[in-house]
Amino acid sequence: MGIFSAQFAYAVALIVAASLCLIEANQTAIGIEIGSRGQREFDYFNLALQWPGTFCQRTRYCCSSNACCRGANSPTVFTIHGLWPDYNDGTWPACCTQKSFDEKEISTLHDALEKYWPSLSCGRPSSCHEKHGTCSSPVARDEYSYFLTTLNVYFKYNVTKVLNEAGYVPSNTEKYPLGGIVSAIQNAFRTTPKLLCKKGALEELHLCFYKDFKPRDCAIGSTSPNGRLYSSSSCPDYVSIPAYASMGNLDPGTTHKAVQLFAPLGIEPKATLSE
């Protein structure tokens, strides 16, 4: 039953991802700029980072591609969710060409991508390029350039290191002032991050850049009275950065258990990529 479920889940993921661009092409009524080929050029880049300690708490099923299920080898740093071309009005282009993802084109980046841009689900990894990477021209003109550029920006603007040095380390008991986290990023990178939370826990942190990758503020979807940037699901004044994640065992179909994932941060990337 476990093997059948894994195959079924993967098949569903393929179908959903394959039809994602077609579905989004018709969803203009909700104010999201997505659709057909020939969309206008984007205005800026949004580097979306996710905190595995929060995200992996959703995990209810394990598969070989899910980094939440790697036990001691699970990610211990903010990982890449994506590098998204966005518009200043808060919308974005998607699926700008018909070019399909080709894993062979980024084979030399495989180890770095597995560590710093892992899948935290059982979805289809190629969709991040087909949906967003194809809209990154003229800055990133091909698949390899898109992924290498994303890694370079991620390493240069090391959010994990900045927060660790400011004292914001994973904890099951501590809650940290949201303003302090924002200030730490502002002082380090001269930009205001966008924060997304889930049940009081920091889940995503977004950094935005001009096309030459100089920092800038993200487009504001909504703000609090004091001007902080929030998502539609706002963060409280004090947030947690979970040090544990409730995950499934490494073997699909087995019972679930809680495992310790995260220790104080400060890991430096081993991959040598130019800044």
UniProtKB/TrEMBL annotation:
Any Pfam family the entry gives: Ribonuclease_T2
CC terms in the record's Gene Ontology section: extracellular region
Transmembrane segments: none
Gene Ontology molecular function: hydrolase activity; ribonuclease T2 activity; RNA binding
InterPro entries referenced in this protein's UniProt entry, alphabetically: Ribonuclease_T2_eukaryotic (IPR033697), RNase_T2-like (IPR001568), RNase_T2-like_sf (IPR036430), RNase_T2_His_AS_1 (IPR018188)
Signal peptide annotation: 1-25
Record-linked SUPFAM superfamilies: Ribonuclease Rh-like
Any GO BP: RNA catabolic process
Keyword set, alphabetical order: Disulfide bond, Endonuclease, Glycoprotein, Hydrolase, Lyase, Nuclease, Signal
Matching CDD domains: RNase_T2_euk
Family per similarity comment: Belongs to the RNase T2 family.
Function per UniProt: Self-incompatibility (SI) is the inherited ability of a flowering plant to prevent self-fertilization by discriminating between self and non-self pollen during pollination. In many species, self-incompatibility is controlled by the single, multiallelic locus S.
Name of this chain's protein: Uncharacterized protein
Species annotation: Prunus armeniaca
